[in-house]
TrEMBL record:
Protein name: Prenyltransferase
InterPro entries, per the entry: UbiA_prenyltransferase, UbiA_sf, UBIAD1
GO CC entries: membrane
Source species of the chain: Companilactobacillus halodurans
Keyword Transmembrane helix: yes
Length: 306
């Protein structure tokens, strides 16, 4: 398998988000508790990184294997376009699983069963997305579950590892992490919706009854707009509730710019043409939000010292 095909099957570019969630967890936990176990955080990131690669390989493998549409197999699927052997894809997939198993086992040994449970839930969601008698990507719950798993479960895992041993991670901490991650959850739900609208015809041909196919494209676009509005509305609410630093209010100024990025997609839903614009908007929103929380943490650190 060449480097280009590995990159496409693993969708390695999407793993930059794993690092972004680590930065979010470090800044938020340090902002509120003044401590973070960097070693466990980094090991957690490496584990999540390889799980992400493994699951992306698995999803591409299962999508090809379960496809009923020859056009999808030959002209859309990365495996079909490159005429790669399923046996080779499978070997690489299982090879990638070794790294998170080893590092994850070490983290569980060093921490406790909660780390194990978070890991199991994350992996199960990833595998069940495209596997089993009724894969999540063939149901109306796929978009919601994926958005929550990506934007909520990973930051909670990092936060738990970062505070492990301090005795300070409790239900209140978990709720705070969930709240601070909510804007990203709605933004990622929009990314999933845009993917569903662009893939609607292919999904129907392959028997996938997604949320978009259930509510219709017009309603899905309305839901897309509402979710973006909620993502931005949460910014001032969380700042006023003192869940996030006041400097995150600057994020609201991005609204006109991001809306301009989304206009082409709202006019036409084309996977190769307008879907990347949605991903660009989501990345811009999430990265800016996380960086502003980081700035807030730095400001607090400076003011405490002086």
């Amino acid at each position: 398998m060449n480097k280009k095909l590995f990159s496409e099957l693993s969708e390695i570019k999407t793993t930059t988000l794993d690092l972004a969630w680590l930065l979010l967890a470090i800044c938020f936990i340090y902002l509120n508790y003044g401590t973070f176990n960097i070693l466990y955080g980094i090991l957690g990131f490496v584990t999540v990184f390889f799980i992400h690669l493994f699951i992306n390989f698995h999803n591409n493998y299962m999508d090809y294997r379960n496809s009923h549409d020859e056009e999808y197999r030959e002209k859309i699927s990365t495996i079909g376009i490159n005429r790669e052997s399923l046996a080779i894809v499978k070997k690489w997939m299982y090879g990638l699983a070794i790294f998170p198993l080893v590092i994850g086992a070490f983290l569980v040994y060093q921490t406790d069963w909660i780390t194990l449970m978070i890991g199991i839930i994350g992996v199960l969601v990833g595998l069940l997305y495209s596997a089993g008698p009724k894969p999540l990507n063939s149901t109306m719950f796929g978009e919601i579950v994926v958005a929550i798993a990506i934007s909520q479960l990973i930051p909670i895992a990092y936060s738990y590892l970062g505070l492990f041993g301090s005795g300070r991670f409790d239900s209140s901490t978990a709720i705070s992490v969930i709240l601070v991650s909510l804007p990203n959850t709605f933004a990622f739900f929009c990314a999933e919706l845009s993917n569903g609208t662009c893939d609607l015809e292919a999904d129907l041909k392959n028997g996938r009854n997604t949320l978009v196919s259930k509510v219709g494209k017009a309603n899905a676009l309305s839901l897309f707009k509402a979710s973006w509005a909620l993502a931005f509305m949460l910014i001032p609410i969380l700042a006023l509730l003192k869940v996030t630093p006041y400097i995150t209010l600057i994020e609201v100024l991005l609204y006109p710019n991001i809306w301009d990025d989304l206009r082409p997609y709202l006019k036409e839903q084309v996977k190769t043409k307008t879907y990347p614009l949605v991903i660009k908007a989501v990345s811009k929103f999430s990265v800016t939000y996380i960086l502003l929380i980081a700035v807030g943490a730095i400001i607090k650190l400076i003011t405490v010292k002086f």
